[in-house]
Amino acid sequence: MLKTSSKPKRPSIKMPTVEEDRKIVAAAKLDPDAKPLTKAQLAQMVPMKALRGRPKLENKKVLLSVRYSPNVVEFFKATCEGWQSRMDRVLSEYVARRAR
Question: How far is residue 37's CA from residue 15's CA, in Å, rounded to a whole number?
Fold first, then answer.
């Protein structure tokens, strides 16, 4: 017995004809709540993908696997959320003092 996929097929998208599109645009222009975007507004648009996530850091951090003593990790974790950033700040301060 062949097993079929349980995923439903996506419906096909039917694009409006040129005439249908004209009617849609004309109706939208008459509706004060549904005005089409101006060319200036369209030019200012940015893909959503570009807006998601954290802003890019000027100084990117390096992903690294490292081992610390359990008491060190427990101490920083006990300082609650953001403990890894605090740990980074403490190490950065140490590096800055040693660089003097």
Answer: 19
